[in-house]
Amino acid sequence: MSNIDLKPKAKIKIKVERPKLHKVILVNDDYTPREFVVSVLKAEFRMTEDQATKVMLTAHQRGVCVVGVFTKDVAETKATRATDAGRAKGYPLLFTTEPEE
Ligand code: TYC
Q1: Domain annotation covers residue 72
Q2: How far is the CA of 15 from the centre of ligand 1 (A)?
Q3: Do the domain assignments include residue 59?
Q4: How many domains, in total, are found in the chain?
Q5: Exposure pattern of 12-34 as b/e (b: 16+ CB <10 Å)?
Q6: Ligand 1 site, residue 96, Cβ cutoff 6 A
Q7: Structural domain includes residue 7
Q8: Is 67 touching ligand 1 by the criterion CB < 6 Å?
Q9: For residues 73 and 86, is the Cβ–Cβ distance under 8 A?
Q10: Distance CA 71, CA 74 (A)
Q11: Which GO molecular function terms does the record list (predicted)?
Q12: Residue 7 — pLDDT band, cuts 50, 70, 90?
């Protein structure tokens, strides 16, 4: 009765990995008005006026600034929407993405 071997013969190991996160990077340019950059950061990245101003100034002074870190899809969608917001006004404002190390 109880002598049937029900033990699994092979171990199945399921490996779950964290999705890689991607940075959204704000790139400086000479034409987009500072206030417009701040308004895009507030609208697309849910930043306060203070946070957005700091990020804008960092990009202005250093050339680039990391805006935030998201899953790949979210990073790409936000970067595209934010870049398009500038393009709609004729500004060369650019947001790029890159995978985190
Ligand atoms: N450099 C722009 C100016 O002086 C402002 C600016 C800041 C533009 C950051 C883009 O990512 C940027 N009007």
Answers
A1: yes
A2: 44
A3: yes
A4: 1
A5: eeeeeeeeeebbbbbebeeebee
A6: no
A7: no
A8: no
A9: no
A10: 5
A11: peptidase activity
A12: confident
Residue type at 38 in one-letter notation: V
Top mutation candidate among 25, 27, 28, 47 for ligand 1, by most atoms within 8 Å of CB: 28
Cα 68 versus chain centre, distance? 5
Output the CA 27–ligand 1 centroid distance in Å: 8
Answer yes or no: is pLDDT of 1 > 60.
no
Q: pLDDT (tens digit, 9 = 90+) per residue, 39-95?
A: 999 999 999 999 999 999 999 999 999 999 999 999 999 999 999 999 999 999 999
pTM of the entire predicted model: 0.86
DSSP 90: T
Name the residue with tokens 């100034």: 57
Residues 70, 75, 81: CA angle, nearest 5 degrees: 140
